[in-house]
Amino acid sequence: MAPTMTTGDDRAEDVTPARPVIADDGDSRSWRRAFGDLSQGWKQRPLWGYLGWQDIKQRYRRSVLGPLWISISMGVIATAMGILYGALFNEDIKTFLPYVATGLLIWKFIEGSILEGSEVFIANEGLIKFLPAPLSLHVYRLAWRQTLFFLHNMVIWVALVIIFPQPLSWTVLLAIPAFLLLVLNGAWISVLAGIIATRFRDIPPIIASLTQLLFFMTPIVWQYDTLLKNPAIAERARLAELNPVLHYVELLRQPLLGKPIVWHHWIVVGAITIVGCAVALVALRNYRSRVAYWV
Asked: Which residue has the higher pLDDT, 29 or 246?
């Protein structure tokens, strides 16, 4: 029996009508997808929250004291540096030791956000390649991990405030929005530095070197106010305000130590936050889809 021939018109009638195409930008470089990445990453809080906590547990696995070593090591370093530099600068240990210790707590959070942020995507190469998850998930995980480190270290601040009472007042509540600003800035730094460092692998060592330099340029083991009171170097001392990390440290240290709030630091940090978030969003919009190929 001869096969039945089908004409072109018959084939056209048999074809199932195609589904209507939903209007889409069809471009990976879109604001909708960039904000969608941030939104989807935030919705996966149980995942990055669990991963961030596991990062800390794995670091101190089989240790007797576990994560308490975070506070112990920080306490030893803060005490040693406070006594040493206090003797060198002839400072009162009752005020200088809390000053140095609080500055170190804040600096460790900033340093961790910068150094680990520059490698946030490189360190998660396997997850990025094989897990269909938004890039922001890794940034949230890093921010959460650094927050846990900071909260562990706050035990040192509590102990010092008890041993060396500080003139705390209602301004101590400003430490909460100040820390949230630090977390937000750590997030945009991680996005921006992470994308750039993933593309150019020489960037992380450069950032590490500059971060070490920033430590000595930031008033952590030396007091900025003391330099301003010296007429001989007061004008040159004001050049220290060109260091943005100074404003971030003072933003949180002043309420934690009960010092008068200098709103100039809040204005500078607010301006940097707005500009930094905008630049990081542009980088996320333009290069989010390329990170998986660069890692």
From this structure: 246
- Establish how many alpha carbons lie within 13 A of residue 270's alpha carbon, considering only the half-sphere containing its beta carbon: 6
Give the phi and the psi of residue 150 in degrees, each rounded to 5. -65, -45
pLDDT tens-digit readout, 203-216: 999 999 999 999 99
Q: Which helix (H) or strand (E) holds 183?
A: helix 175-199
Q: Distance between CA atoms of 94 and 149, rounded to whole angstroms?
A: 25
Q: Sign of dihedral through CA atoms 46, 47, 50, 52?
A: negative
* Closest C-alpha to 146, from 178, 197, 187, 101: 187
How buried is 49 (Cβ within 10 angstroms: 0-12 exposed, 13-18 middle, 19+ buried)?
middle
Q: Are 178 and 249 in contact (CB under 8 A)?
A: no
Distance, CA of 247 to CA of 266 (rounded, Å):
8
Tokens, residue 258: 């009960």
5 pLDDT exceeds 60?
A: no
CA angle 137, 139, 140 (to 5 degrees): 65
pTM confidence score? 0.85
Q: Residues 64-98: pLDDT tens digits?
A: 566 677 778 888 888 898 898 888 888 888 889 99
SS3 36: helix
The two three-digit tokens of residue 6, written as one number: 């089908």
Total length of the chain = 295
Q: Which of 110, 112, 103, 136 is nearest to 59 (CA)?
A: 112
Reference 195, options 294, 112, 110, 277; nearest CA is 294
- Tell me the per-residue pLDDT of 137-169, one tens digit each, with 9 for 90 and over: 999 999 999 999 899 889 899 999 999 998 888
What is d(CA 143, CA 180) in angstroms, rounded to the nearest whole number? 11
Among 170, 129, 151, CA closest to 260: 170
